[in-house]
Design brief:
Number of helices: 11
Number of strands: 12
Radius of gyration: 19 Å
Low-confidence stretches: 1-72, 74-80, 86-92, 95-99
Mean pLDDT: 78
CATH superfamily: DD-peptidase/beta-lactamase superfamily
CATH topology: Beta-lactamase
Structural class: alpha+beta
């Protein structure tokens, strides 16, 4: 069954990649005729979709995959919930073995390259410093949303409070008050395009509301041993949302266990069809948009206090690895440092 599921994911990934335009994920799942000519037959049962959601036994999907993982729209859509991993990821204690020769220099305030399987630190710079993390916050927002096992087909309407920002910061967005979409689309907006109102809406519609959501974020951080981390809200606009490169290495390894987060965070481009307008959206990470690297999970972030940030889970030379860059002076510097670290990682032996 595991091999057949992987084959299904691969076939659907390729067919959907060719046919995705303004058609929603849900329309493809529940109404195959809504896609363009040549779209694969996607008449899935609720059990099929739930199994793909709860796919922690599979290898991470390759960068750029737009595999359907949940139903998003349709009055007759089955109730689908985002399943969390059955077991917490088993991350080995982090061991600093970064004293290798010819390590690259980075302009980031803090940086980490970690073997995601063994916990070995391959590259480090100020890894324990607790600093603002901007929209990297949304990775924990996604984890808490998935852990709650909420109905991903439930419709959410964006409210004015979702656009309020934090500490007076403007929550600029292509979204508008009154926009309606279901929870899966809201999560996709938050991860792929880093939309702040989307992340705010996920917290607002959580059982118990925003206070309960933020409490769950901090409880999850404590459970994972993220001792330098604290969250005040779900978007990352608040500079009091802080963490360390070390902690974010743990979070990225944890988030990579959720198939929904992997796939949504590495969708290169997607046209959101809200029914009354289409929002053409691109991933905020150029390395995801451009391909070339096997990126399994990605999240970028920026506010003035945090600088340019990125967290990625990647596979290089069969080695699963996490790359964290915090406090970069510019987007170009962030992209250059990430590319250099990926290239450096590709020249390391599989195990050191």
């Amino acid at each position: 069954m595991k091999n057949s599921k992987k084959s299904l994911i691969h076939v659907l990934s390729m067919s959907i990649l060719l046919s995705l335009s303004s058609t929603s994920f849900a329309e493809l799942v529940n109404n195959p005729s809504s896609g363009s000519t040549g779209t694969a037959n996607l008449n899935w049962s609720s059990a099929d979709v739930s199994q793909l959601l709860n796919d922690e036994d599979d290898e991470p999907t390759i960068q750029g995959s737009t595999s359907v993982t949940t139903t998003l729209r349709g009055s007759n859509a089955p109730k689908v919930i985002a399943s969390a991993p059955k077991l917490a990821p088993k991350l080995a204690p982090i061991r600093d073995t970064s004293g290798y020769n010819a390590q690259p220099s980075v302009s980031a305030r803090a940086a980490l390259v970690m073997d995601a399987q063994t916990g070995e630190v391959l590259f480090s710079k100020n890894t324990n410093a607790s600093v603002p993390i901007a929209s990297i916050t949304k990775l924990m927002t996604a984890v808490v949303t998935a852990d709650a096992r909420l109905n991903m087909s439930e419709e959410i309407m964006l409210e004015q409070i979702d656009f309020a920002g934090a500490n007076g910061k403007n929550s600029s967005s292509t979204l508008r008050v009154g926009d309606k979409m279901n929870r899966a689309e809201v999560l996709l907006f938050a991860l792929m395009k880093s939309e702040n109102p989307a992340a705010a809406a996920l917290a607002r519609t959580y059982p118990g509301g925003r206070p309960a959501f933020v409490a769950a974020m901090n409880a999850k951080a404590r459970a994972l041993g993220m001792n330098a981390t604290h969250y005040y809200e779900s978007t990352g606009l608040d500079p009091r949302n802080v963490s360390s490169a070390r902690d974010l290495g743990i979070l990225a390894s944890t988030a990579s266990q959720y198939g929904l987060i992997r796939q949504f965070s590495t969708t290169p481009t997607y046209d959101f069809n809200l029914g009354y307008r289409v929002l053409k959206s691109n991933n905020t990470n150029a390395l995801v948009r451009n391909g070339g690297w096997n990126i399994n999970l990605s999240k970028t972030g920026y506010i003035n206090e945090a600088g340019r940030c990125v967290v990625m889970h990647t596979t290089v030379n069969s080695r699963p690895a996490v790359i964290v860059l915090l406090g970069e002076p510019s987007t170009q510097a962030r992209n250059n440092d990430a590319t250099n670290l990926l290239g450096w990682l590709s020249n390391l032996p599989k195990r050191i």
